[in-house]
Amino acid sequence: MLDAEHIAQIVAEVTSRIVARVGEGHALTETLNETLWWEHERLVRLDHDERAADDREFYADIRRQLPRVSEREQVRILQQVVHRYAEEIAGDLGHQPTGVGVPGRRRGPGFSPTAYKLATRVGPPLLSTLLTGLSPRRLLDREAIPKLEEHLRIAGEVHALARLHERGTLVLAPTHSSNLDSLVLGFAIDKLGLPPLTYGAALNLFGNPLIGRFMSNLGGYTVDRRKLDPLYKQTLKEYATVSLEFGQDNLYFPGGHRSRSGAIERRLKKGLLGCSLAAFRNNLVHGRPKPAVYVVPCTISYPLVLEASTLIDDWLAEAGKARYIIVDDEFSRWERWRDYLRGLLSLDLDIHIRFGQPLDSLGNPVDDEGVSLDPRGRPIDPAGYLEVEGKLVEDPIRDAEYTRELERRILAEYRRENVIHSTHVLAFACFELLRRRRPELDLYRLLGSIGNEQSLALPEVEDELAQVLTELREWAKADRIRLSDTVADAEIGEFVRAALRNFGTYHHRPVVERRGIRLHVGDAKLLFYYRNRLDGYGLRGAPTLVHERGQQGAGHA
Amino acid sequence: MPDQPKVAVLGAGNWGTTVANLIAINGFPVWLWARSAELCREINEDHTNSRYLAGLPLSPLVRATHDLEQAVREVDMMFIIIPSQGFRPVCADLGPLVKPQQMAVHGTKGLELDSHKRMSELILEETCMRQHGVLSGPNIAREICEGKPAGTVLASRFPRVIQRATELLRSKQMRVYGNVDVVGVELAGTLKNIIAIAAGMATEMQLGENAKSLLITRGLSEIARLGVALGADPMTFSGVAGIGDLMVTCASPLSRNNRVGAALARGDTLDQAIAALGMVAEGVKAAKIAHQLTNTLGLRSPLIHGVYKVVHEQLDPRLALRELMSGAAQDDIDPSLFQAQSQSPSSFGPRGRA
Fold it and tell me: A66 near A198, Cβ under 8 Å?
């Protein structure tokens, strides 16, 4: 586990690498001017707060100095900027007097080693602590104080994780559908007996009234997605790389943000993903004893998603980009948490976490001892992929290509380890029936056409469900997808009851509800959201409705 | 050994032998792997390959071996030039012999039957070699062996593969063009063989140059549309490995697929046509695969379907022609190609591996 001193070392290392990479002359001036421009763009849009004021002052100062300074002075300024970025990324933990930082800079609550140690120790049973601590008893019924850990089902390739952790550095790469993901994973990591992970969390999470305090104490580093300056992004990637080189196990959501559509990720952020390979290569170059970086794909599947409504609204509004960072959603309203957890717990619903095939940093599968394997399972030495005539060679285009392959293999694991709940299946069947009824409509019109007055005859739905379940169960046998117990075993009648019960618990209106012998759709958008977990599999010959390009918008059928 | 080959060519058919010879003429010793010990002996002792390139002398730097391990053990790059339906078994044999450091370029124009996989996918599935590429272009082996000038395309997403292969192949006689669209170059090289069969029929039936030109351009449009649907960059089809390769196969009487088409138009059966050729005509299998693919993808492909029916369903070529000429004419430039082009801003964007 990294202590404050290590983190200060990381910040210093990151700073010196970036400064060296930028170099001198024209590139240096250009980089600084670009930073000024991007930061200006960001700051004019920002509300006034202490941090923003501080930033404005910092850049105003640089803007005054820049036209008059020598090249050596420019290097010093660049160093200040990068160091400031890196410190912010490190969070309060990175705040160490190093002499490079800007004097007089004010920060939030300073770093306390005791608090940090405490936090990392209590980190894992975080959620119960968190919820007990944050939910005033008068607001949260006693019986609902959650024993959430009892509702987590951890499965998959877990046996090798501890061994891989000894052999090298782990990168946990989960799917992302809810802000609960980090907390749920915290539990899982603890249950598996692994040490806490460092993870990049969006800056806005640190501002979240419910969990912000815990985030910054957890060893997480901050990612401010409003900062578009390429220098900032470089610093961020370098931070992740160096922390991996320091042997710090990492967790990041390679999809970049929560899935807006409800579908499993189709595309990953290659920038951050590439840090695993960069760290592996640097470890080899420096002849470090345990150079390997292992990437462990992992899925988190919820029967109901806390923020489903906001997310699908955002996706359908094609506003994903504009509202890239959703600050005010269900996650920051504790009464939604309460309803969510109550629903989850009262119905005995399980959140499934599945660990997929661990991979090396080039995307090759590894065995339980961390040895990389070729496509036919023969051991290989992955260092060879980086060598030319026996020497390690740097080649960013080559490495980007390897990272693309890593992405492809992670996505394949996501697809395979996706756990399907009864809510997904019922939503899929109902949506398919409605879609087939109106094949002439595009997605938006179709969703608009689905109202409460429309209904589906129960026998019709049951017929469709029977076929969907048959196909899914065959796929599960062939290891192509995973199923929750109900989806795997229940007979139709029982299955429908369970799915309807689940849909009736948390959302404002039941997504699907039964009236007599007919099923009514209470919320077309949520129906679509839950259906999307099965999008792209070609289940029952259904078209893919969520397209790669449509990350922030709807694809048309 | 100071002149131990650093490069190998696997497959001693006429194109494999030609590639090995090109490399050797450039002064690089090269292993040429062939299954037949007899052929190896001939190449090593007589410096000829009489079955595939009768009457043409080979450079003494071409060293034949039938030991696959010997051929690939010390090399940094191998060219795999094996007929498409024998490609996977050779890759499977390579699997235990190769290392992550090594690079593989294939020169096979075809897809695997049933799976419809491209050759580079087979390399990735059977071996640990990830740095791969494809060699394709308007290259009639015999012309090249006779020392005539030509150009070819080396497509790879790994710059070093292009660089190294170019170093080995480039000469006064041979120009090598780089491309990053592996999928497009593989598909263009494969699908054009179907059009070449049609061109062979047209020549044999003496339909004239107008007809042949129409056939080539409409054929290009069809294969580009199918290629784009499978993840190719439409621009690749207007390059050396696209229209360039199509023109040569349609024009040259030496082209194998062209010859098969001509034989069919004369009234030969498919078996007779192939027997007369004595070599593999990739277009025959490609027509079958493309027929299935266009049906699955719902693409309108009258030419491909016409060739398929003549080759595999014994339709009379004259009837096929009549069907083609009476079909409804579409836009000159297919709208799907515009669209695909505007959607591919970066040549390193995500594509392929459909």
Answer: no
- The residue of chain B with its CA nearest to that of A267 is B350
Structural domain containing residue A300: 136-416
pTM of the model: 0.86
Q: Residue B178 and residue B159: Cα distance in Å, rounded?
A: 9
User: Is residue B190 within 8 Å of B224, Cβ to Cβ?
Assistant: no
CB spacing of A375 vs B125 below 8 angstroms = yes
Tens digits of residue pLDDT in B198-247: 999 988 889 888 888 888 999 999 999 999 999 999 999 999 999 999 99
| A386 touches B111 (CB < 8 A) | no
User: Does the annotation mark B192 as catalytic?
Assistant: yes
* Residue A276 shares a structural domain with residue A374: yes
List, in sequence order, every residue forming a beta bridge with A514; answer none if it has no partner: A519
Classify each residue of B141-156 as buried b or exposed e, where b means 16 or more C-beta atoms within 10 Å of its C-beta. Answer: bbbbbeeeebebbbbb
Among chain B residues, CA nearest to A364: B128
A388 touches chain B (CB under 8 A): yes
Taking CB atoms and an 8 Å cutoff, what residues of chain B touch A384?
99-101
Domain residues of chain B, as ranges?
7-180, 188-342
Kindly state whether B181 is in contact with chain A, defined as any CB-CB distance less than 8 angstroms.
no
Query: In the structure encoding, which two tokens stand for residue A378, read together?
Result: 């023969």
Nearest to A481 by CA among A489, A473, A491, A470: A473
Distances (CA, A) of A192 to A120, A128, A167, A185, B346: 16, 17, 17, 10, 43
Interface membership of A400 toward B (CB under 8 Å): yes
Cβ contacts of B126 on chain A, cutoff 8 Å: 375-376
- Pick the residue from chain B with its C-alpha nearest to A387: B101
The Cα B274–Cα B284 span in angstroms is: 9
Predicted confidence (pLDDT) per residue in A70-114, tens digit: 888 999 999 999 999 998 888 754 343 333 333 333 333 333 333
What is the value of ipTM here, to two decimals? Answer: 0.87
B128 lies within 8 A of chain A by CB:
yes
Say if the Cβ atoms of B76 and A389 lie within 8 Å.
yes
Judge: B101–A397 Cβ closer than 8 Å, yes or no.
no
CATH 1.20.1300.10 fits B188-342, yes or no: no
Q: Are the CB atoms for B212 and B128 separated by under 8 Å?
A: no
